[in-house]
Amino acid sequence: MPFRSEAIALNDSDGGREACPVPSLYRICISARDDFRYLRCMGPKAFILSVCLCLCLTGGWFVYLAGVKARNSQDPLGGITLERYYGVEFLDEVGSNHNENGLLESMDFVDTEGRQISISDYVEKKNLLIVFTRGFSGRICPYCTTQISRLISNYAEFKQRDTEVLLVYPGSTAQLPQFKKAGLLVAGEDSVPFPILLDQDLQAVGKLGIEAQLAKPSTFVLNKRGEVVLSYVGTSPQKRPSIKALIDVLDQLEPRSSVAEPS
Q: N or C: fewer beta carbons within 10 Å in the chain?
């Protein structure tokens, strides 16, 4: 049976969909500069008027940005319908494409509750699925929202396979509540069942070599011995393992007792 919500790619060629288009301040300034050169030839009054016009345009631009921010806070899905989130397709077959140089097991994080969490704490206890999102760099990433929603929806499948999910959120946490809210809304759940770890200074991202605007979408699977059995870094925002791909990797680890078929 198929996993929940595992099926129209969103139009997001550079890594995130803006909630709504924002005019370029650079273009406004260039246009204003050209106007200055023209109007200065017409005398001081016209020049003063052009300066006032430029200030009004700049002020209006910042008011517009404030409005965009307010709308984003009211709509965590960034104007994208739930149906489009449900239609996002990730990769059903993946293999390791990145060398993390054995650094994961020694890494420490702080979660959203302020607790220290070390990857080594899980050795000999749990398999680990560690997912690095792209963070929030001023744009809503629908793929990160889709990914966390599916991890939430299918958490029981990982738990049945003795696997803990750790989601790493790099960079500023200012938009983390909105991100969690969006993921829960798409998943149709009330709470995130796994820890969300913070990498505000991007130290872990830097050590692992997955830097981008903040971070590339990256997925790591560790067995109970702490060995990395999957190290996959997406070459584009949509390139991420599907739930099916992750379950397939986990099912190739140690034999398990009876596991219910996924719903």
A: N
**Choices 1.20.190.20, 3.40.50.150, 3.40.30.10, 3.50.30.30: CATH for 82-251:** 3.40.30.10
pLDDT digits (tens, 9 = 90+) for 151-197: 999 999 999 999 999 999 999 999 999 999 999 999 999 999 999 99
Burial 139-171 (b: 16+ CB within 10 A, else e): bbbbbbbbbbbbbbbbbebbebbbbbbbbbbbb
Residue 93 CA to residue 110 CA, distance in Å, equals 31
